[in-house]
Amino acid sequence: MKKYKGESKSKEEAKLRAKELADYLKKELGGNWKPRVWNNIGWYYNVHLGSMSVSFHFNKYSCLISDGVNGGGGMGYWSKSFCSFPNPKKAVEFAMKNANEFVKKVTDIMQKNKDLISKKGLK
Fold first, then answer.
1. Which of 36, 38, 63, 122 is deepest in the core (most CB within 10 A)?
2. Rounded to an integer, what is the distance from CA 3 to the centroid of its chain?
3. Gyration radius (Cα) of the chain, Å
4. Contact at 8 Å (CB) between 62 and 85?
5. Do the beta carbons of residue 49 and residue 33 sit within 8 Å?
6. Tens of pLDDT along 34-79?
7. Do residues 94 and 65 lie in contact, with contact meaning Cβ atoms separated by under 8 Å?
8. What separation in angstroms does the CA of 90 have from each of 61, 68, 96?
9. List of E strands, 16-112
10. Burial (Cβ within 10 Å: 0-12, 13-18, ≥19) of residue 54
């Protein structure tokens, strides 16, 4: 993965560099990831696939699955998904594994307690 080195000469150059890095990350992950670039006292980037986003910070990648849409904001569902990895695909694999484990646990709870819940709510 390309690493950003040095200061940008202008704000426009910093924005273009963030776009370039977002496009590169999209290419690294393949598929239908969408690049996202924004300014918040500096230019930042990530890529998102629905409500899953991959970011690059402090020379590591992290993947967040949240209730936000289009890769922005929202609350993270799996705090373990904030773990960082040197490879973006490993970050996605880790987040997906944790999400699947969480869904399985919730499904098991719902199945064990299905007699408490009717279609109209709690019995």
1. 63
2. 19
3. 18
4. yes
5. yes
6. 999 999 988 999 999 988 889 998 889 998 887 766 555 566 665 5
7. no
8. 9, 22, 10
9. 34-39, 43-49, 52-57, 60-65
10. buried
Residue 10, both tokens: 């202008």
Taking alpha carbons only, the member of 51, 49, 43, 50 closest to residue 21 is 43
Cα dihedral 58, 63, 64, 65 in deg (nearest 10): 180
Whether the pLDDT of residue 2 is over 90: the answer is no
Residues 6+ apart with CB under 8 A from 59: 3, 86
The CA–CA distances, whole Å, from 30 to 25, 26, 58, 88, 89 equal 9, 6, 23, 11, 10
Query: Would you state the structure tokens that stand for residue 18, as one six-digit string?
Result: 């963030």
What residue ranges in 40-93 does DSSP mark as E strands? 43-49, 52-57, 60-65
